[in-house]
Each structure stands twice: as C-alpha cells, then as structure tokens.
Amino acid sequence: MTENIKVAYWPGCVSRGFTPELHGSMAIVAEKLGWELVELDRANCCGAGVIAEHNQELADTLNARTFALAQQTGLAMMNICSTCQGAQSECQQRLDADSAYRAHINETLSGQGLAYEKGKDGFTNKNFLWLLVEDYGLDRLKEQVVRPLSGLRVGPFYGCYIVRPKERLGYGEFPDRDVYLEQVIEALGGTVVEYDGARKCCGFPVVTMNRDTSLRQAGTHVGDAIDAGADCLVTPCPLCHLNLDMQQPEAAKVVNRDLGLAVLHLPQLVGLALGAEPKDLGMGKHIASTRWVEERLTAGAPA
Amino acid sequence: MADYTIKVRRFQPESGEGPYWEEFNVDLDPSLSVLDGLLQAKDRDDGSLAVRCSCRAAICGSCGMKVNGQSTLGCKTQIGEAQEQADKMVGAAGVSAAVADSPIRGEGSDLGSAGNPIVIEPMGNMPVIKDLITDMESTHWTKIRRVTPWLLPHGEPPEREYVVEPESMIDITQSMACIQCGACVSSCLSMEADPGFIGPAALAKAYRFVGDPRDAETHERLHDLADDPHGIYDCTHCFSCIDACPKGVAPMDQIMRLRRKAGEEGIEDPNAGHDHEIAFVKVIEKKGLLDEALLVQESYAPGIKGKLKPSKRGLTETIKSLPTILRPLRKRKVKLRQAIPGLHHGLPKEAMGDVKSIYAHAEEHSEELNLYIRGEEGDDAQPDGAAAEEVTND
Amino acid sequence: MPSHDVLVIGAGLAGQRAALAAAEEGVSVGIISKVHPVRSHSNAAQGGINAALNPGDSWESHAFDTIKGSDYLSDQDAVEIMTREAPEEILHLEHLGVTFHRNEEGKLGTRAFGGASAARTYYVADITGQAIMHVLYEQLMKYSEQIARYEEWFCSSLAIDENGECCGVVTRNVADGQVELFQAKSVILCTGGNGMVWKPSTNALICTGDGIAMAYRAGAKLMDMEMIQYHPTTLAGKGFLITEGARGEGAHLLNAKGERFMERYAPNKMELASRDVVSRAEQTEINEGRGFPDGTVALDITVVPKKRVHEALREIVLVGRDFAGVDITREPIHIKPGNHYTMGGVKTDVDGRTDIPGLYSAGETACVSVHGGNRLGANSLLDTLIFGKRSGRDAAARAKRIDYARASKQVLEDEENLVADIISREKGSGRRISEIKLELGQTMDAKVAVFRDEAGITEALETVRRLKEEAKTAYIDDHGSVFNQDLLGAIELGYMLDNAECTCVAALERKESRGAQYRTDFPERNDTDWLKHIDLERTDDGPEISYSEVTITQWEPQERTY
Question: If C392 and its partner were Cys, which of B9, B227, B390, C18 is the partner (CB 3.0–4.6 Å)?
Fold first, then answer.
C-alpha cells in the first residue's frame, strides 16, 4: 500500500452547509496526507434514509447517479459522513442484489448518459475512516504524526450508519470497522476514553419529531463521556456533530446538567496530529468550545 | 474443547443485595453456544443461576440476553465467536461491565489481547427479575398488546381461503418470523431515551397486520401509530434492532414500511413526521442538496411562504430551534444566507435537471425492491462487465 | 382458590386450540403454561400441516397414508376424524390470519412430504408451527376476557376428588414460588412430549413429559409408550432438526461414498418414505461403515434451486449457518437420526377423554392413537389442532353439566412437603440433578433408539430404576422462591424417569418390529400376536401391562413398502 490515494470525493451536504469546518479540515488533511480528492460537485444528496423511507426507487436512483458519476472518474469513492455511508450502502445493496432492478434504475439514468455498473473496476464507496485504516494504513498514519495527541483523552462517537447493520456494511470482510476510531485515536498518540455511548445514536434523526428524546440521547452521551474523563469526542458523522455540538446547549437543558465538551470531526483530530492549526481546521466555529483541547495539546502529556 | 470464562451479571432478588458480577469457567467446543456455556455453569457449579431457555435452536425466543453488550439470543451466539468479540471489544462496546470496572483504558491499550471474559448481561430496557431473567410482561408484551395484535377482517370470511397476492404473504412472513425474544427491544436506542416508545417488536408486529391484505383496518392502524408521539415517528433509525434480531425480521425496515404506507394513505400526523419526510424530499427536489434551514421550516410549517398556514406546533418548534440557528451564526460557522430558509446554495443548473428527471421517473413508479421476497442474486451474479462478457462468449 | 370451568395445562398448539374451542362454548377458561405460551415447542414444527383440501385429493387418501405410515397401529376411527376435519381446520387458521404460502393464483399452495401419496402439506416457509402458534396466541390476547392466562406457572400434580374425577391442579407461580390449588370442572393436559428423556433430542428443554407423568401418577392409562420417533435429519451432536420439508423440496440423502442410498431401501418414495424407514436406512448405512467418520450421512440441499431454498427453507439456511457453520445452498450438511417425537402418551378417546373423568389430553401428550407406530411428517400439527379443538369442546360440555367438586387440600400439602424435602437435601448428599439427566439421556439414546433388543432395553430399564432411586437424594443449589429453576428441574427429572420407565417396559413387552419399534431380536412385524396396543397403568411396583384392540374401520393391514 505504498501508492498514493486518489479518490472520487463526495463531501455530502452538511459539510458544505452547517458544518463547513468539516469540508475545510478534510481538504487540509488530504493535502498533508498526500491524498488527491476529485470532488463530485455535481452529485446529489444521499437522502439520509428519509427519501428511501418515502420512495425507495427515488433514493436508489439518486444514489445510483452519484455512484455513476464516481465511476466516470474511474476512481473509488470516498465520503466523510456516516449517514451518507449508511444511506448509500443501503441503496447499493439493493442495486447490486438484482440485475433487473439495476437495469430499471439505469434506464432512468440513461437520459443523463449515466449508468451504475455493479463491481466496475472493483468500485467501492468508503468513509474517510475506513479508507484511512484499510487503504492508507495506521502505520503510515503514525509516521505522519508531528504533534502526537499525548495526554488527550478522546471519546469515539461513530454514528449509527457506519456501524449497523453489520451485514450490509462489509463487516464480514472488515470485522474491525467498529473499532477503527479507537485505533486511529491511538495511532495519533491520543488516549481512548471508554464510555457508554460510542456506538449509540446521537438522536439527530428524530430531532424534528421528538426533540426531547433526540436531545436526551445527545445530552446523555456527552455527559457520559465527560464523566468518563473525556477531553473531547471525535466523530466521522456531521449529523451526529449537529446534535452533539450545535445542539449541545439545548441538550444540556434536557438532561439538566452542565455539558461543554468539544466535539471534533474526524479530519480535525487527524489534522491536529498532522500539525495543522486549530483555527485553520475551523475549530473556532464549534458551539462547544474547543479551547480545552487546544490547551491540552500545547501543555503536552499530563503528569 | 476450549476453556472460557463467562462473566455474568447476577441478581438474586431474595438476597437483599444488589446486582453483582460472577465469573464461571466452562469448557466446551467453540461451536457450541453461550447458552451451552451458561447451562454448563448451572449444571456443574450453581443451579441457582437463572436463565430462561428452551429450544437451544433460536426458535423459542426464551434466551434473549446481552453478550459483550450486544443484544442477542444466548443459543444463537457461538461461544468461540463471543470470545473473539470479547477480545476485540474489551471495554469498547459500551459493555456496562467494563465501564463500571475500569472506565478508561490506559495508554498503550491492550486492545486485541486475548483471554478477556465473555460478558453476559440481562436484556436492556426491561426490569431484571433474577440474574438473566427480565420482566418482559411489563415492557415487551404490554407494547405488543398496544398495537391490537390480531387480524381485523371485515365481514364474514369467504367459504374457502382469502385469495391474496403470493408476495404479500411472503412479505409479512418476515414479521411473522419474529419469535418475541425481545432482543430488539433490549437494543432499542429510542426506547432507552423514551421508555414510552412502542418499539421495534410491537411495530414489526403492527406491520404484520398493516401489510396483510386480509386486514380491513389498515388506515385506522396507521393513523393510530402515526398520531402516537411514541409511535412510528419516534424511531431514531439507529439499526440496532436489525443487528439484534436473530430471525432477520429487520424491525426498523418494517417501521419504515409503516411510515411509507402512512404517507401513501395521506396521513398527517401531529408529530411532524410526515411533514418532515415530505419537506426533505421536496428540498432535495428543489436544490439537489440539503438546505438545513429550509428543511426545518418546511417540517414544522409546511408551505409557510405559499399558504401561510403554520400549525401551532410548527411555530413553537420553530421558535425553539431559533437559538440553535442563531448560535452558529454568531460563531460565523454558518453564513446568513444558509440560515435563511431557501437561500442555501444548491446544485448547478445542469445537475438539477438530472435530479428533477429522476424525481419525475421515480415518483411515477416508486418501485419497492423487497429483498426478503426477491432474495439476493448472490455470487452467481457477476459484476456487470463480466456478465456482459460472458454473454458475448456464449 | 382460582376456579375455571376448563383448565388447560400447557399452551402449545393443542393447549391454545383447546382453550379457544372451550371459550367459544361460553365457559370460563384458564390456560396454564410453565413457559410463556409462545415459547412452547410447537414452534419447532417447521415443515407444515397436512390436509386433503385440494380438489384432486381425498381424506381417504390422507387417512390411508397415515394408517400405512403408522404401520397399522393407529386407531382408524380416530384417523378418519382427523383427516376429515383437516381441511376445515386449515381454512379456519387461514381466516384467523396464518400467512400460509400461496400459489401463483393467490390460493393456498402445498409442498410434498414424507409418506404421503399427494402434495397436501400446507406451510409457512419452514416456520409453520411458529406461524400458527403465534396466530393462536394473537387470538388468546384477543379473547383475554374469556381466557385467563397463567404464564410461567408450573403444574406438579392433578387433584382427584373422592369420586375419582379430576377437579383441579396444583400449580406453582414460577415468578414468586407461590403454590396454589386451582379448581376446575375439566382439566386438559397439553404439555407436549418427553424428548428430554433422550440425549440428544430435537426437543426443547421443556419437553420433559410432564402431562404424561402427571396423568400416569393420577391413575390414567398410557398407551403406545414404546413408539418413539427418531427423525431422519437432525444435526449431529446438537440434535437440531432439519425439516423434512428439505426432502419435500427435493433434497437427497447421500452416504460417504456419495450414493443415494435410499434406492436400496425405498425405491419408489426414496427420501420421502416414512420416517422410521428413512431413519433405519440411515442408521444401517452408518452401522455398516458407509457413513462419515462423525457417525452421519449427508443431506444434499444444493440440488434444490437456490431461489426456492431462499423462499421455503429460510430457517434451515440459518440453522446450517449458525449451528453447523454450513451454507446449505453450497454444500451437503451432515445429519443422523435423532430423537424427535412421542407417538404414545395418555390414552384418550376421539374427544380427548382419558380414563379419569374430567381429565382430558391432546397433542403429543395424548395417544388417541392417530400415529400408531410411526407419525407422518406434518401430521403432528394437525393432531394438536383437531384433538385440541375436540377436547376443548367436550371439556366445556362437561363443565356445563356439572358443578365444581371440592378438591382435597391434601394434594397441596403433598406438594409443599415434596418441595420442602427437595430443598432440605444437603449439598453433596447425593448426585447432581444434571448428572442423572445426562446418564438417563445417554442410556436411552444408546439402548432404546432406532434399533433395539432385549438385552439393551433390559439394561436401560435397570439403569432407569437405579436413577429413580438416586433422584430421591439428588440435591439442588437454589433454595429461593423466585424463579427457582433448580427445583423445577428436580421435579421434571421425576417426570422424565416415569416416562423412561414406561417406554422401556413397553419396548421390552412388544416382541416384534413395527413402526419405530425395531427389535433386532424380532425383526418382523407380527400381526397375529401384536396388532394391539400396549397400555400401562401405574402401580407401586412399576407399570402394569394390559392390551387394547386396534380399531380397524376399512383398511386391513398390508405389507408396508415405500
């Protein structure tokens, strides 16, 4: 695995909407890692499971279009959002399962000169986290670390869509995908904080329908991480970030306790270890202050 | 044969003491189950170790439990695999055991080291009666009865059988495959935050009737479940139940089917569930990408710009979400045009044309590929290129 | 004291059907089960349920197949009733909501099954028993005002009044250990079979012959107890069932040489001969060295189209994957004959009445006898439903006729004394319950299985009688009241030993080979001397043997070939 990574890059909607710091930090990290990202700027929203809930064929066709655009580049596809990963994998599973159905979907796309081909050039769609561990490698990552996250106690937060359902998300071939965040944190020199919520739901999908339940979930996980001694959380999912960070003051009210825990996007955490500046990584844009994380890093390992 | 250590969360209600952990050493073939391990401990060491079990073959649904934090059936989990999982996930799986005993793994963690105990706990989201035995009546069964779990046909039955689409019977057989073990309930993350949630098992059971062409109360059932604040729109879409279910029922998929059918029936719920769905679909149709502010506005107050008929809940919820919108504005995280509904950027014009044509096609067909009915082609289906080659070679 | 006109013990298919039938008659009904009803072992019936419902089929054909399958030991009047009433029962279930497989026209579709001359097995994938039982439980929930459910209550003895009639049961609330005498005008025993007497068995851990033993202890006659079915396709070692539906869908049986050996044993029906025939064929292959080293032969499901496996044999795909690590769509799976079903049981008439007035029995607990020496696949669900229904109705009719009799409190005291005795035994004072169960199971599987002889059965009987003595001093660890499964295990061991003793005595008595009873020392069927049932009645010295006639209506015994 010495060749450089070059991928068709789907940034998703939220990284260019309410979490622009994710998009920005990914660009910085890619440059530092020497990855080439070919951005799919014409691709569309994955539907986040909501469109599939409304009309399965619509969701499948929209994502088939994205896959087809990626396949036109001849590259594997990368996303930076657990929800995109999950929603797109769900559609891809159906598309791959049934050639007649695939043909039906491709007929719709044919007017745009597009077609999704199953298994074309070994086509894959992987989250940045998966690519980092499986294709780039933790050893190479370690070599790139210039500012080890010594003494930084980091709680992983995966986001449901990247850990379940295991059968759909390639856990047969890659059974450790649910401990990659821990592996990355350690590779970057940080300390993993164990707490109850790492693979639980942030609550975001029901924030509109049941705000209390949603924020209770976010608030509980953030609180548990604080109780376990975390300096920050890290997540590969910008939608989780919305509930854990942007909604954190509201979540604190629901769980009736003080919170105030920094929540980093995965590229931000990697970026810090690779020597990027917190400001450039957009950490000042977070709702929950990241100052403590920055202080921890400048102070180095605690006694 | 191999040696295993199982660490069981025990509770003896008559002892006057709280729950505690106990480790048992067992030796059995790795292909045997966690339940076999428990039964061996019970047979050899302590007959008071309480666990419901009967068939040992994942059909009776008695032995729901958590193994290394994962809700499952004890009989369906091979002990060798459970050991591998325990070694991999030491402390990392949200196993309350590990959390309680040693919340922080030290630097130079031993992630991946062998020989950790297999952690066995009673199911979650239910009161514990004794050891691994939970009170399913007050939680699981009460919720099952909540969905009117029997067929409600209209009129007298036909002289012979009801004639129905063969595929409809296969479709609801997926829900009938449920053995009421409670593993999905145990794993449900919505229920963890909202104990009132009707939950995955009961909603899958509801689909068994909603999807049954012989049932005549489809609309009423859907209305009931959509209107309930703890109903179909209270599912947080976390997939936990899908992974927990030992029978492939995929309860969350059934809940999504209920939502789709509720939408098809034109059911407007007071929880903004349907409005949120429609809003999302419309926003993507309009812009190709998500416009968060527009989604929020359209979910709570659909058509506010056009018809100006916001609901009371729509207004209050919008006001409630204002601080959430204003904070990122202050932090310059979000630009003003992103915070004002509808001003967010969308896809380039040409790409939007593609999206709109997809909408036009799909809204017309809205074909549903049910893999439970159709099955997967599996590995006899080649990648498209290879298949094409084969055809030309023939 | 809780009172119900009709009290049903056991909540599998027979029990639930009986409760619903009794409730329809307008009487008050209670249903007691030691496990939650949906945990009952009817779940395990995978393949389907037989009925001559197709226009081209007839109940006579179904009856003949059943009688031939039984090796002419079934009572033909009972078989006639069962097969005549089968179509109506299937339609009744369909109307209640069972998701039976449909053919292309959307009507009920069938599959082929062993020993049957027509494809008359109706099914829900390979979860038929489960699908029917959960639908009946839906109905129990629907009619909760008429039917009181006692879920997780364990029955330990029957109350018999001074006139010798059954008037209630002693039962223990498993959740808190409270023991009560329930009063009833009619009691229906539907507690399933006794598979736990053998190890391994396809049966669930709860199948400990409770009802058979309780009725026997109360003085009811047992019948056909020697007839124990070994199912041809069970997973080696673990005993899990692979449905006969697999062979119904076309799967082959192969020996280690890859030969389809059924050609030599049943050239016409091949894999779909009767179960006793197929099990003996397999055991012969294994015994004569043509099996695999693990003492098995192979079931090859790869010859069934994948699409069909996916639709109709889903459960078996899971069983193969989860319990044997085998993808059955790609490779054969190793199987062997394994203990599966109790043809015998509590002797009843066609309305479920036992020798004790007021005591009924249905399902695997009962012996009507419709299965005789060998039960056909997909006839067990039918038996539970038809005779569950009939006993429920008759029990309700009786309840309408009579008043409650006063049950003596003595049974309650006896029960309390028994429990006190078990709990008082000191740790180490005797053997562990689990050791006795293991020795029992292994002995029975070795000596009273597919092939039997006098020496082996005698040895087994001696072992069983020794174990009965040892059970009297066996100790338990749990001395509490809440979910004391240890205590229940000790009581169940007593049931199992009574069942085992009866089976050994009957197997020793029947000096011929018929159906599941194959005596290597008497290898031929002998209609002159043995075309009769063996009945057993409890005495202090063990079971006392008597005989009863086999009812023949229109099918004279013939030579039996497949």
Answer: C18
